[in-house]
């Protein structure tokens, strides 16, 4: 009997989760049962993936950089990665602004619906505003300061400090290149072995992916708010999904074909396990282990490229998040009857780009950074409450765009430096 592929198992888990939630909603106590006895398994699955994220980045990035044996290779790859990531992010923000100005979803929000949602989600909105308060008052180069840790052990204790861990890993990998090979060998052998162990741990974890996805989807649907709220925000959700669809099915395939001549359909099939997991977990960091496995084993990108480009992308390349921030900011302004000038919207492009770079690769981190975008544009921050009802499903969609962009850029860079296997050689 032919072995069922992982992405098919994950898809089955998602479908069963939806069906389970529908049944649970119809039975008295079904939602509570789902929350108490099903949701914890999804939480455990996400926690296990997050648990492995820091060790994976340390092991793979140090190994990847130290394997280069040539600092010039590191700089060339880094410049290409940053260049592509900035380009795709700015494009995503501009696309979001164009889409939201054409559709104008905020015009469909009625006064009664707005007041109801503000009352229901004002507490959550206040919490997000408080979390972002310290970041709002920071200088323009605050995110540069935050890249350098004052204590690497403390930085490695939280996935929200991923940039600091990446900085340390790059510095350590660079040092291993610069010292004599005989002195670097013991430590390099350790990280090579450590990387192999982490990859095997990931294989073990992924055996439980379909069950984790089932629990996540079932809990999400069972706890979702009423249909009236979803209908009121339908145009907003459509605008975000429409923009993300253009990224996924037009922009990224075009980039891939132009730079690599690879089939976009085949590429999507190859990275589909990572996309499905990104959709389920809403976390680029949690999906990173699977993203690396797909790009290396299914697409044919050399580990030298994937171990360097993907961890950085999972932290700083948030195309879906930046598109969402642009759409959400203008949507909230429209809901409050505000007309944003071209200058203000150009400011949103810059702010959303920088905010997406600073967003942690975890679920709903973009909500915190959105407060900064709103403040820059002079949009009432209380309007954040308007989008809480549909943020979670849209967060799932935009994470797919984030991960797909990472995979696309890694494949392009691998092709440019001769580290991409021919399609016929990929297993």
Describe the structure in your own words.
The chain is mainly alpha-helical. It has helices at 6-26, 30-68, 71-103, 111-136, 142-147, 152-155, 162-178, 181-206, 209-222, 227-232, 234-260, 264-281, 284-299, 303-316, 319-335, 342-358, 365-377, 388-416. It is built from 18 helices and no strands. Helix 2 (30-68) runs antiparallel to helix 8, helix 3 packs across helix 14 (303-316) and helix 12 runs antiparallel to helix 13 (284-299). It is globular and about 70 Å long.
Question: Mind sketching the topology for me?
Answer:
Blueprint lengths: L5 H21 L3 H39 L2 H33 L7 H26 L5 H6 L4 H4 L6 H17 L2 H26 L2 H14 L4 H6 L1 H27 L3 H18 L2 H16 L3 H14 L2 H17 L6 H17 L6 H13 L10 H29 L11
Q: Could you list some keywords that capture this structure?
A:
427 residues, mainly alpha, Proton glutamate symport protein, 18 helices, 80% helix, globular
Number of strands: 0
Low-confidence stretches: none
Mean pLDDT: 81
User: Number of folding domains?
Assistant: 1
Radius of gyration: 22 Å
Instruction: Work out the helicity level.
Output: over 70%
- Portion of residues in beta strands equals under 5%
Oligomer: single chain
CATH architecture classification: Orthogonal Bundle
Q: What is the overall silhouette?
A: globular
Spatial gap, N to C terminus: 19 Å
CATH topology: Proton glutamate symport protein
Q: Identify the CATH homologous superfamily.
A: Sodium:dicarboxylate symporter
CATH uppermost class: Mainly Alpha
Which class do the helix and strand fractions yield?
mainly alpha
How do the helices and strands follow one another from N- to C-terminus? HHHHHHHHHHHHHHHHHH
Largest sheet: none
